Amino acid sequence: MGRGSFSSRLGIVLATAGSAVGLGNVWRFPYMTGQGGGAAFILIYAVCILLLGLPAMISEFVVGRHAQRNAARAYAKVGRHRAWAGVGLMGILCSSIILGFYAVVAGWCLQYLYAAICGQIPTTSADSVSFFQTFSSDPVRPCLWAVGFIVITSMVVSLGVQRGIERASKVLMPLLLLLLIVLAVAACSLPGAMRGVEFLLRPDFSKLTAGVWLEALGQAFFSLSLGTACLCTYASYYSRQTSLPAAATQIVVLDLAVAVLAGLVIFPAAFSVGVTPDAGPSLIFITLPSVFAQAFGSVAWLGWLIQVSFYALLVFAALTSTISMHEIGTAYFSEELGWSRPRAAWLLTVGCSLLAVVCSLSVGARPNWQLSGLSVMDLCDHLTAQVLLPVGALLTSLLIGWRAARPMVRREFLCGGTDERLFEPWLQLVRWVVPLCIVLIFLHQMGII
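Request: output the structure for the sequence above.
Response:
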């Protein structure tokens, strides 16, 4: 059974960047930038990308392209022992859990897009709170939207690498960037918007504490989907002509550009109406609806268009991420069970849909569904972000830095015309700096430092 492959360099970059670009780029990164010193935080984030993001991403690329197999088989082959398959299996499990609870928030985005199209988005802060609480506590609608999002994702993945993932990425990513640019221009043209731009981009080095450095490290880690086996799986579809460092650099730049553009949408609009945005889901589901209504409400059709465009942007960002998370498990079940891609995709869809329903109910209609004081959704988030992701990324860096055959690692790194002088510095980063960064992130997430 053919595995498929990406047909072009553009397809490689857009598909893999799509796995990194998600909802976190729209609300988390801009907020962290504003609170962490503006342009100073962006500079620190860029340093963290160079120290952790790029080297770790290339490491996962090496595993995937060398093996040309699903994540479990890829790690076993590169590690030269079947015990290493456990790293790939952990990534598959992690991505499936993330898909389950991520689909809940993605479903909220679909609901808000539908409401925006129908002109039902509230125009005041109080009404926004009531609207969100009423919807999220409903026992049926949030579950239907979450499952619907997973089904849409499955339909794309079922079509294959080129006809499904690559084709969707070539449509969704340009649309996402276009919407961001249009919204940023519109937001920055509002009266008083420059205060928001200044808040986002003015460097304030007095805010650069050790905690900010650790937050920047964590954002670099989570934003690029490190440790989920996604990058490994996608790289297994790369051609031998692809330069892994070049592809990784382009993906990182695109991911950062999306995050900064999102900040240029959110902060100018918020400051133009005298609102300082908060972090978290409340920003995009409670604060921003009323912000857009106030900022663009003087022209009815413009306010409607801005709201529809913004929530379409969120849906596109979520979909590019869920496609990558779905593909990891689909590739595994298809190859290990000998099933067709559609059959493997629907198996994963059923499992993740059940998890999505439980997660949705645990933060809505059934708040008493808790384990260890956490809702099922929060528990899934905690398990993946604080355990599975850091452990998977740490083991990958140790595998490439110390266990894998050095001639193979060198060959994969240089394949595609990469400058040979870059290999040794990259390898030393993978061996020493990346593991240290991941340990620091893990300790920070656990509240130890």
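The first helix runs from residue 9 to 20.
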